[in-house]
Amino acid sequence: MTSIFNKPFTRQEAIPEAGIERAVEIMRSGKLHRYNTDEGETAESALLEQDFANYLGVPFCLACASGGYALHIALKAAGLKPGEKVLTNAFTLAPVPGAINNAGGVPVLVEIDSNYCVDLTHLQQLMEETDCRFFMVSHMRGHLADMEAIAELCSKHKVILIEDCAHTMGASWNGKKSGTFGDVSCFSTQTYKHINSGEGGLLTTNDEKIMARAIMHSGSYMLYQRHGTAPEEETFKDIRLDTPNYSGRMDNLRAAILRSQLPLLAENCLRWNELYDAAATALAATPGIDIPRRPAEETYVGSSIQFRPRDLTSPEQISSFISACAARGVELKWFGSEDPQGFTSRYDSWRYLGDAPVLQQTLDILSNTLDMRIPLTFHLQDMALVTSIIADELGKASTRKTA
Questions:
Q1: From CA 53, how far away is CA 236, in angstroms rounded?
Q2: Could you list the residue range(s) of the whole structural domain that residue 206 is in?
Q3: Does residue 5 belong to any structural domain of this protein?
């Protein structure tokens, strides 16, 4: 009998009861807006900012409406001028170049390496050959590049480093948390991220002026001191009058949902990695499959896994393999398709970028890159079944290819 997997890949765990109870309290109060507080009361959004700043070990955190919005105002708050170039990975999700465009910048794409990280040789070359003042590094699908080397390059070339940590909340490089290397860092709390409010984002920084500008950009009006981690009043003296309002605040309802999940993050990261490691071990043992190398310096959070079936070389073969897995309940995404599908898209489909150069190394790597979510609603036996289906269907596809 052909085995079938019957769990959805998009099913998330329930919000903790404490978050549900607090959210109901807030709804009953009617005080959803972050500045709708009584005398002496601290808004839930401000409490979340305090909680996350403490978790990350940084002085400042801003709760935003989305991760993409956080990236947008990170660039603006860091001083991006209209038409300036911003370096970023060629392999990322569409909101990253979208945030650069929204901030008035021009994305300059950097090649990736076979482990899905930014190619440091190409990055250095572009820093030497261009006048880019910004590098927005996207830790795409949870893969951390050598962050010490990146920080050194940015320091040498006077480049402002902005970290997109949408997929690396809870990860670290050499014991230093992802999001603490950049001048500004941004996290997502969209449904498929490591804490879930449906939509939302967090911006962090050590720089009081960047934080003051970000708060004003977020739409604080003159209520900036109601933030959980606001700089001193004096910092806002001119910034409060010079900075436009882009209205992208997080509301108290989402903050309550997130605050209940943050204490569980460390435990959940371990649970993700148990599932990821089981899948990676099984896939690595499957003939014809390559998986990325995880450096010893990297502490990752395996909420998804990427692999390349090296014997499937044509779009038709890959599409047929994906369809065969889907028929048995295993949902795979393909980052090499010319036509964007769902959340996945290749850099050359973002035509608003104009005549972007052909990045052949990136295209070759993505040509057969497949991606699979690993939700915490799965168990180890689920990973065993899923990977056995992948191996079975790959064996059939390889047989058809050689027939």
A1: 20
A2: 17-262
A3: no
Pair 244, 269 in one domain: no
β 85-89/106-110 pair status = parallel
Q: Which of 125, 129, 138 is nearest to 98 (CA)?
A: 138
Distance of CA 35 to the CA centre of its chain: 28
Tell me how many domains the chain contains.
Answer: 2
Q: Which residue has the tokens 């603006």?
A: 76
pLDDT tier for residue 401 given thresholds of 50, 70 and 90: low
| Listed residues 262, 286, 320: the one ending a domain | 262
Same domain, yes or no: 249 and 302: no
Looking at the structure, do residues 369 and 288 belong to the same domain, yes or no?
A: yes
Tokens at 282, concatenated: 């099984």
Same domain, 297 and 199: no
Residue among 257, 241, 204 at smallest CA distance from 71: 204
pLDDT tens digits for range 40-85: 999 999 999 999 999 999 999 999 999 999 999 999 999 999 999 9
**Tokens 């929204």 appear where?**
102
| Rounded-to-integer distance, Cα 133 and Cα 174, Å | 26
The Cα–Cα gap between 319 and 315 comes to 6
- In this structure, the answer to whether residues 83 and 232 fall within a common structural domain is yes
- Residue 173's CATH number: 3.40.640.10
To 10 degrees, the CA torsion angle through 403, 371, 341, 365? -70
Helix ranges (DSSP H) in 58-200: 67-77, 95-102, 120-129, 147-156
Give the whole-angstrom CA distance, residue 274 versus residue 382: 12
Nearest by Cα to 321 from 401, 210, 381? 401
Domain co-membership, 251 together with 369: no
Rounded Cα–Cα distance for residues 388 and 16 (Å): 32
The structure's pTM equals 0.96
